[in-house]
Here is the input.
Amino acid sequence: MKILVIGAGPAGTRCATRIAERDPAAEVTLCGAEAALPYDRVALSSLLAGEKAVPELITHELMALRAQRIAYRPATTIEALDRDAHVAVTARGERIGYDRVVIATGSRAIRLPVPGAELAGVLTYRSLNDVRAMLSAARNGGAAVVVGGGLLGLEAAAGLALRGMKVTVLHPVGWPMERQLDAGAGALLARRMGLRGIAFAMPAQLVAIEGTVRVSGVRLADGRVIPASIVVMAVGIRPDTALAVASGLDVGRGIRVDGCMRSSDPHILAIGECAEVEGRCIGLVAPALEQAEIAAATLAGEDARWSARADVAALKVSGTAVWSAGDIGAESEAVTLRDEGEDRYRRLFLREDRLVGAVLYGDVADSGFYLDLIASKRQVGRMRAALALGPAFAGAV
Ligand SMILES: Cc1cc2nc3c(=O)[nH]c(=O)nc-3n(C[C@H](O)[C@H](O)[C@H](O)COP(=O)(O)OP(=O)(O)OC[C@H]3O[C@@H](n4cnc5c(N)ncnc54)[C@H](O)[C@@H]3O)c2cc1C
Here is the structure.
């Protein structure tokens, strides 16, 4: 059986290797639009921060892929699928026959359509090439503006500051990472990053990027202009469904698939950030890898199904530990523990006597305990009073 995996990110690469392991007779081809060997996208922040070098990011060497009989085709973008003929067409016009396809095209970084967005020096934060562009700009020092104070924006800001740039983060809400952190933890985080020289403009609205050929600064809605030699847009991602749309598959926000990862065409599966399951697209690597395993099982004729669990977010390079999971919405009751001396903060979100979400700042050692409680939907009952103190106290009740 000829299996074509499109997209050599974490999901596509995991799926290709699992298919090859299960079926030694399968002819697996892995096509990736990027020129690099498959690499760990999550570790890009460690590369930017100088904690890792490029070779340490590579997850699959060519020899290892060959040993698994996987034909790896880098710098190969699939533009369309001729679903009647079972042929994939590359951007160079080559035709690749298939029996089954797994689409794992991931997401694209969103670029805000403000005036000046196409100037040289306006970057996004998604790929190895994006980080190479940031590192090359940082060699000249200067100032950087990061648009977006979410997880990725803060990791970009921390990395660029470590590389010697003067960094300002623009964020439309009054505290960073507002989707994962409540206002209390967000304020502590901004203060801590401020001590490392990172400035925050919050709430701030970007209206234009200034410059002629290259960026010279950004203009805010309140009239302020912040000088910058690079602008990094970290304002979110959009599932990359271009190929699926061009091929006539059922597409919502992502490529619609069932729990077995099958698309509207039974010969085509979709996994990872480009896939939409039960109306939801994921934006994290762990579920993308789980979906890769499910797709490999489906192709092997097994009945495996994927279902969503609580989202977990952890900040990697801000110099402080931040972790959040589950639903931290306003409809829940909250229990808060704040220890300013220790720079430690916890907020737990409860609904109908069950833990539904948690934010940990400063000390995240108990994250597994809280994640288990969220996932198991156990009633917290008598342990509620001690819950914020962690398992050593709450677990014993
Ligand atoms: C800097 C950074 C830090 C992150 N940190 C975390 C973290 O701490 N925790 C976490 O859970 N997640 C993190 N993420 C998100 C994580 O990287 C993604 O969830 C994960 O990469 C999704 O994997 P994927 O294989 O679905 O998609 P992707 O990794 O996006 O891979 C898709 C690949 O398909 C290629 N492609 C697209 N279209 C085509 C085509 N037509 N033909 C061929 N190839 C194509 C793309 O070029 C890309 O290489 C981070 C992301 C970034 C950018």
